[in-house]
Amino acid sequence: MTNTTGAKIQDKQGNTWLYSDTVKDHFFNPRNILFSGEEDKYDADATGRVGSPACGDEMVIWLKIDPKTEKIIECKWQTFGCGSAIASTSMLSVMLSENGGMTLDQALKIKPQHIMERLGGLPNRKIHCSVLGDKALQAAINDWYRKTGQHNKIITTGAKIIDKELNITDHDIEEAVLEGAKTLEDVQKKLKVGVATPEAIPEIEQLIRFYSEKYYGAE
Amino acid sequence: MSFPQKPENKRTVYFDHAATTYVAPEVVKEMMPYFSDIYANPSGLYAIGREVNGALEDARRRVAQILHALPDTIFFTGGGTESDNMAIFGVVRKHEKNGKHIITTKIEHHAVLYPFEYLEKHGFEVTYLETDEFGFVSAKQVKEALRADTILISIMYANNEIGTVEPIAEIGRELLKWRKDNNTKYPYFHTDACQAAGAFDLDVEKLHVDLMTINASKIYGPKGVGILYKNRNVNIEAIVFGGGQERGLRSGTENVPGIVGFAKALELAQENREVENNRLTELRNYFWDRLEKEIPKVRLNGPSLDNSELRLPNNLNVSILDIEGEALLLYLDEYGIVCSTGSACTSESLDPSHVLLACGLPYEYAHGSLRFTLGKRTTKEDVDYAMTYLPGIVEILRKISPVNLKMDVKENTHPQYHQR
């Protein structure tokens, strides 16, 4: 898969957004969509919804699961979001259901970077668009575990409170970094974190560094 | 369910004239000799240098005439952003000892907003005027924000995103009165007129502005050239140092072809503006009528289309609910339809347009905004071409969207931003 014929879009800092041919293919020919208005007719075994239109991304995933093998038979979705978000969800749905379907355990191991690899890469600032699909999937699988009484398997991502005044967690910081914040100042603009609790700032800065490296690589 | 069939003869219909315009052929023609034939440095004392200098000063006179100003008030620069920076930093560096309060609006272009934010971090106090839901500020608001230590006010003539035309002359008059009543020369009044230059009167005497920015690339002139008008009674510090060109305020060998092109472009734009304004208004309103009729849940952003004095005639900004602007923009591009969006996904901050948010538009509406800006070459056929494909694309993107917003802003619940 080559990138050279992808659509070039430049952001305001002059960085090129390069959409690979695979991204374009999935964007213009999205796979496995459940058209809105047809949700009631679709008999899903589990559903996961994340995001909101106010954030700029919202996503719903429906799964049909074989109860014996716990394999995903079918994955359907809807997305409100940009080109990358639509392409990422489409690719995720293909990965989950291809070759006879993934088991739930396998599915839970899918990370945003796996989706990105299959897409032939995403522009740096578009990485957050592929993260939401991962979260919607997790929500859907939790829904399955809840419905089948496997409560011990439900994944509760242990959020740690960083700013006691505002009840802001490490997830909020992660989110801010994914949305483009690079410095303490950027994060504070979004979250006001640490403004009332300056003692939390060293930990906040450490988290910003950690998540920046995790998603964008070391500087 | 599928997307509208691709046209057999794909055209490019360009609806992004607020981003930049093509260069008018008459302008190119006037620029051409100054690249390879009449190319000397205008500072050269020899005959061919003097000839170029003559062209430069002729361009200055032509621009000054349109602004009803004297030639020595016109300073050529490298574009609108530079002119804005030159005005703002130029004034505050010269006059900060007399006050450290400056005023602007929340909907300025970043070329004004970011210098103000920078100054705010460096010891200045900034008042950001709120706008109403259509983007208007009032002379009364300005008056109420004035203080004894206010040295500069910068308010755009017309907004680039939603086309709002601010009451510059009225604000200017209010400031004249304030200065007289308080026996002061402050505050100085700057306006960024980049978007207005092709459509409205630029007479600085009528507008009562001390400084005004215009650039060529929005008025069918070349990119990378602009002017700063500066009243003779206003002193500013230079922000670019070097050979002392432009009377020491903007060093650097003059972009002579660009400057000659600027003068021609401004003349053309002002000559035809009334006829062209009427044509564009009619075409823009036709576009909106079709959008409103043929696509459900579309909201007009910015001022009413009825009053041609209060909104740029070529500007149409809409929110198409339940879909995200960047996705829509990329799909339209596949059909050759070019426009822009205020969605976060195209901005550097990942927050949607600061202008739409300042007008009180909820995030979910701003994410679905599209801006169509028409131009001299835009025809009814172009609008019809766009409307052949837009409704079908919107329908499909809505089919794959889980969102179903209410048209009335108040009926939607607004989950707090970042809460997922």
Please render the helix and strand layout as text:
The complex is a heterodimer of chains A (about 220) and B (about 425).
Chain A: E1 7-10, E2 16-19, H1 21-28, E3 46-52, E4 57-66, E5 71-80, H2 83-97, H3 104-108, H4 112-118, H5 128-147, E6 161-163, E7 168-169, H6 170-178, H7 184-191, H8 201-216
Antiparallel strand pairs in A: 1-2, 3-4, 4-5, 6-7
Helix pairs in contact in A: 1-2, 2-5, 4-5, 6-7, 6-8
Chain B: E1 13-14, H1 25-31, H2 33-36, H3 47-67, E2 74-77, H4 80-95, E3 101-105, H5 110-121, E4 125-129, H6 139-145, E5 150-154, H7 168-182, E6 188-192, H8 204-207, E7 211-215, E8 226-230, H9 256-271, H10 273-294, E9 298-301, E10 315-320, H11 325-334, E11 337-338, E12 340-341, H12 354-358, H13 363-366, E13 369-373, H14 380-399
Parallel strand pairs in B: 1-11, 3-4, 3-5, 5-6, 6-7
Antiparallel strand pairs in B: 2-8, 7-8, 9-10, 10-13, 12-13
Helix pairs in contact in B: 1-9, 3-9, 4-5, 6-7, 10-14, 11-14
List keywords for this structure.
heterodimer, A: 219 residues, alpha+beta, Sufe protein. Chain: A, Arc Repressor Mutant, subunit A, 2 domains, 8 helices, 18% strand, globular, disordered N terminus, B: 420 residues, alpha/beta, Aspartate Aminotransferase, domain 1, Aspartate Aminotransferase, domain 2, seven-stranded mixed beta sheet, four-stranded antiparallel beta sheet, 13 strands, 39% helix, disordered C terminus
